[in-house]
Design goal:
By secondary structure, the protein is an alpha+beta fold. It is 31% helix and 24% strand. It folds into three domains: 223 residues, HIV Type 1 Reverse Transcriptase, Chain A, domain 1 (Roll); 136 residues, Ubiquitin-like (UB roll) (Roll), CATH 3.10.20; 87 residues, Nucleotidyltransferase, domain 5 (2-Layer Sandwich). The strands form seven sheets. It has a five-stranded mixed sheet with strand order 2-8-7-3-4. Strands 9-10-5-11 form a four-stranded antiparallel sheet. A four-stranded mixed sheet has the order 22-21-20-23, with helices on one face.
Length: 499
């Protein structure tokens, strides 16, 4: 497959000369898996992606990762050793919030994805041999930029910035391999698409038709659902929040947390959580708290695998941080050894490949810095009063466990919604007491307002009622991701009427 002209861009590996090259011994596979590997190598050779190599100083193994389709396998190369020897490329990646905000309010959107995007960039001639890998029938190296290299994302961002520099922030938004063409007016969309296609053709970048969507009013971009109305909650994200289960006791949190971490990890039977921390002048400052409710199968992972799983899932939400910074994981648990054990399970091998593109360091546990850990425990664990209430409820019920979806006994719920049209605007507020009693309130606004503004007014009205009732614990529910993130501080309101 033709790729990007190397005169435009190619990928370099700036290996630290002080680090001695590592040549791994060939890993043995059963005959049926050897056949799968060799078939994939034949495809890569036919596509011109790889070539045979001799006397390679850097040499790594391939790993087989099971696909979701039963019986199918993905052949991957584990570049962990090579990535450790390469410094971090600090090329700035765009801020996701600054990309997502301008995509809302457009009448038509088109979402595009490159075909094997990384493989369209050539490796520099001097660095091809450093990507060498070994299989039963020989040693090979990549002629194109493979997946799994630490700085591949930065190189790809350089490329798309160069290709679309005249269109970015005007008719396009681009984040690594995610491309979006937008048009505030329907009549302009074809013209904007033609300009994007012209640039793609000029630089010889190929698209994957099966992953492209053209001329739609809404779609998912960088994890957000963008529509003409604005930024909305994606159904999958709503489902994850509704299924979220909090850790039951403080002990569950503390038993598996690492110490002195730039990323704090915590697991329970039903939840994995993390706190991303930065250090400044010896003081720790939280950057991001993240939590994920485990699916049924995931709850059965061993606790050590849950810790590793948390490292895998949170880069999906915190991708810019993982790509732009080195993440130091200081823990008493041998996570790195487990990930890179030759006897690791298929699941662990798959996770190791996903994590290999990030600059992760595993350092031994030292002392606990109380402030960050305390903040984390406060964020994700119930109070002593709640634990006592849970214990009492367990004593009262014989052979019956409370459902995980039930809120704590003293938790009130606030549900808000709003809508506006040419006839006016109104909002609804429903408060559910701990014993299930419904308190309902309907509000008619005496001024014109957008849907987001009406949602905001509904939330404010509900909070005023909660304050009057001196409610201590309140769970808030709304279908507007924009309003909820503004209320929590994740988004910053820009329009004066929303401040």
């Amino acid at each position: 497959m033709p790729g990007i002209d190397p005169q435009i861009i190619c990928h370099r590996l700036h290996v630290n000369p002080a680090i001695k090259p590592i040549a791994q011994k060939r890993r043995n596979f059963p005959p049926e898996r050897v056949a799968i590997i060799e078939a994939e190598i034949d495809k890569l050779l036919a596509a011109g992606f790889i070539e045979e190599v001799s006397y390679a100083e850097w040499l790594v193994n391939v790993v087989l990762v099971a696909k979701k389709d039963k019986g199918l396998w993905r052949v991957c190369v584990d570049y962990t050793d090579l990535n450790k020897a390469c410094p971090k490329d600090n090329f700035p990646l765009p801020r996701i919030d600054q990309l997502v905000d301008p995509t809302s309010g457009n009448q038509l959107l088109s979402f595009m994805d490159a075909y094997s995007g990384y493989n369209q960039i050539m490796m520099h001639e001097d660095d091809k041999a450093k990507t060498s890998f070994i299989i039963e029938k020989g040693t090979y190296c990549y002629k194109v930029m493979p997946f799994g290299l630490k700085n591949a994302g930065a190189t790809y961002q350089r490329l798309v910035n160069k290709i679309f520099k005249e269109r970015i922030s005007k008719t396009m938004e681009v984040y690594v391999d995610d491309m979006l063409v937008k048009a505030p007016e329907r009549a302009d969309h074809i013209k904007n698409l033609a300009e994007a296609f012209s640039l793609l053709r000029k630089y010889n970048m190929k698209l994957n038709p099966s992953k492209c969507t053209f001329g739609v009013s809404s779609g998912r971009f960088l994890g957000y659902l963008v529509t003409q109305r604005g930024i909305e909650a994606h159904p999958n994200q709503i489902k994850a929040i509704l299924n979220m289960k909090s850790p039951a006791t403080t002990k569950e949190i503390q038993s598996l947390t690492g110490a002195d971490l730039y990323i704090y990890l915590a697991v329970s039977d039903s939840t994995v959580s993390s706190a991303l921390i930065r250090e400044e002048l010896g003081a720790q400052h939280p950057v991001f708290y993240t939590s994920k409710a485990l699916l049924d199968a995931e709850t059965r992972y061993p606790k050590m695998e849950k810790l590793i799983f948390s490292l895998v899932v949170f880069p999906r939400k915190l991708r810019p941080y993982y790509q732009a910074h080195r993440i130091i994981v200081m823990t008493e648990f041998p996570l790195r050894s487990i990930l890179h054990s030759p006897d690791a399970s298929q699941r662990l091998m798959k996770w190791a490949i996903k994590l290999s593109q990030y600059d992760l360091l595993y350092w031994p546990k030292t002392t606990i810095k109380a402030q960050a850990l305390a903040d984390f425990v406060v964020e994700f664990t119930p109070t002593a009063k709640e634990e006592k209430m849970v214990m009492k409820s367990k004593e009262k019920v014989d052979d019956t466990s409370p459902t995980d979806s039930n809120p704590p006994n003293d938790m009130w719920q606030l549900h808000v919604d709003g809508a506006s049209n040419h006839k006016g605007a109104g909002a609804g507020v429903v408060i559910i007491t701990p014993d299930g009693t419904l308190l309902e309130q309907a509000i008619t606004l005496g001024f014109s307002a957008s849907n987001n503004e009406v949602e905001y007014e509904a939330l404010l009205a509900g909070l005023r009622v909660a304050k009057e009732l001196t409610i201590k614990r309140l769970a808030i529910y709304s279908d507007s991701q924009l309003i909820m993130n503004q209320a929590s501080g994740e988004y910053m309101a820009k329009h004066p009427r929303m401040i």
